[in-house]
C-alpha cells in the first residue's frame, strides 16, 4: 500500500496553528452554550457564525454532502450526528466535532460535554476518553510509529473497561481534511508508519461504555453504538516537531 504522507514546512505549520486556534476559539464559544434546553441546531448556528465572522470556513458544511457546520452526537451516537431541533437534556453527553479551514489549511477537533448530572460510569467514560487522547498524543515525536499511538489509546481504554470503535480512525490533515496516514485507536506498538517532523495528525479516540460494535442510523450519517450504550469522542490536531509535538487545536 502506497501512503502519501505530507510533511509541512514551518511556515505551513504556522498557518495550521492559526486554523487550529480558530477551531479552539469556536469550541470555547460553543461550550458557553452547552446546557439543557439548547438545540443542536442552535449550537450549529453559533459555531457557523463564529467561524465565518473570524474569517474561517466551516469546512464540514457540504463535505461529502454533510448538511451542517458541526457534528453533534448525543449519548449512544458516536460521531457524525446531524444538528437538528433535538434539545439537550439533563443527563445527556454530547460530542461536538468540527473542522475549521483558514488560509487554505484544515484543523479538526472534538470534545464531549456532560449536560447536568450523569452517573459515575458515564463521567468516567468522558474523562477517560480525554485522557486516552493525551496518552496517544504524548508519544508523538520523530521516530515513533503510528502503532505506538494506537496501542497507547487501546491499552488505556481497556485498562479502564472501555471498548474501542474500530470502524473510524484518526488521520493525517493539511490542505485536506483527511490525509494519510490512518490513525486507528487500536493496534500494535512498533508498527505502522514512522513519524517525521512536519507531519500533522488528527488523533481521535472514540470509546464506548458497552461493546465496540457500531451501526449507521437511517440518516446515512450518524454512527451509533449497536447496543445503545454511551460513547465519547475527543480529538486534537497535532504536529510532529523536531523533538516532540505541538497541539495545534489548543489555546
Ligand atoms: N471531523 C470529522 C473527523 O474527525 C469529519 C467530519 S466529516 C463531516 O474526521 F462531514 F461529517 F463533517
Ligand atoms: Co473531527
Ligand atoms: Co478527524
How would you describe this structure to a colleague?
With 251 residues, the chain is of the alpha+beta class. Helices cover 27% and strands 24% of the residues. It is built from four helices and 14 strands. The protein has a five-stranded antiparallel beta sheet with strand order 7-6-8-13-14. It has a three-stranded antiparallel beta sheet with strand order 1-3-4. A hairpin with a 2-residue loop joins strand 3 and strand 4 (105-114). Helix 1 crosses helix 2 (40-53) and helix 3 (120-137) runs antiparallel to helix 4 (146-159). It is globular and about 45 Å long. Bound molecules: 2-amino-4-trifluoromethylsulfanyl-butyric acid and cobalt (II) ion (CO) (2 copies). One cobalt (II) ion binds next to strand 4.
Q: Compute the number of helices.
A: 4
Distance between the termini: 36 Å
Total E-strand runs? 14
Q: What global shape is seen?
A: globular
Whole-angstrom Rg: 17 Å
The secondary-structure element order is HHEEEEHHEEEEEEEEEE
Provide the helix percentage: 25-40%
Summed over residues and divided by their number, the pLDDT gives a mean of 98
User: Main β-sheet, in a few words?
Assistant: 5 strands, antiparallel
**Secondary structural class:** alpha+beta
Bound molecules: 2-amino-4-trifluoromethylsulfanyl-butyric acid, cobalt (II) ion
The proportion of strand residues reads 15-25%
Strand order across the largest sheet: 7-6-8-13-14
Low-pLDDT runs of 5+ residues are none
